[in-house]
Amino acid sequence: MSIIASVFCLGLLNGCSGYSHEFNSSEEAQKYVLAKLKDKYDKGFTVTEVSDYKEEKIGLNWILVKVSEKDDPLRTATVYARNTGLFEDSYHVYFYSDEIKKLAKPLCEDKNYIQKYDIEIEGRPTSTEWTEKESIEEYIEKAEYTVVLKIYLQDGKAEREYAEEISDLMQEIMQSDLNIHILVYVNGENPIFYSLPEEDRQSDVDFILEEMYNIKSLQESIEHADEWKKLKS
After folding, report:
1. Which of 1, 155, 161, 180 has the maximal Cβ count within 10 Å?
2. Shortest CA distance to 140 belongs to which of 106, 99, 193, 84?
3. What is the pLDDT of residues 6-32, one digit of tens each?
4. Mind listing the pLDDT tens digit for each residue in 120-156?
5. What does DSSP assign to residue 154?
6. What per-residue string of b and e applies to 207-217 under the rule 16 or more CB within 10 Å gives b?
């Protein structure tokens, strides 16, 4: 009798853990996500936003949500789940974010042209089972995170001076093992330069100047489009 019960339990639930990965509504999917996170990290979570929920014609249902930890709401994560059992989340980044910040800080310190800087560590949703027991070197090599490095330069300089300062910074970033997304600001909310981790990085001053020009042109085009929409409305 116990064998029959065990087989029934395995078929009905996901390993008798108390939840099934089969869901047919957003509400069921959210319950699955919260139960899976609880089982995975032994922590309670709350869904803060349902970014998307889809039921495909082929029977594939999936959900994309944002969650926060109940005991520490500032700890947020993105979760992607499918009713096939695929489960990806970004909470793992909190196991290693403090160590990564320490490694990123030297890139910004002792540079008199940097007025201030801000470092954020973002996790990428992944099915990798991080347990916090892995080495920081292993986590960095897997690159399932991004260092968002916001740099603020002194106002009032010529564009070539900014390009030279960015070039100096880029040379160090290119030598780093970290997965870095850099945004450089002077004033205002729009960056004068940015570089994504997957891009082919260059530290040549003329190349950076050209990128700065392209970014500025794109921002001006967006601003003009917004103004045109306001006039039309």
Report:
1. 180
2. 99
3. 433 434 444 445 567 889 999 999 999
4. 999 999 999 999 999 999 999 999 999 999 999 999 9
5. P
6. ebbebbeebee
d(CA 28, CA 11): 18
DSSP string, 175-227: H--S-EEEEEESSSSS-SEEE-TTS-----HHHHHHHHHHHHHHHHHHHHHHH
Q: Which tens digit of pLDDT belongs to each residue from 164-208?
A: 999 999 999 999 999 999 999 998 789 999 998 877 788 899 999
Backbone angles phi, psi at 225, to 5 degrees: -65, -40
CA distance 22 to 137: 36
Helix (H, G, I), strand (E, B) or coil at 135: coil
- Tell me the C-alpha distance between 4 and 8, whole Å: 6
Count of residues in the chain? 233
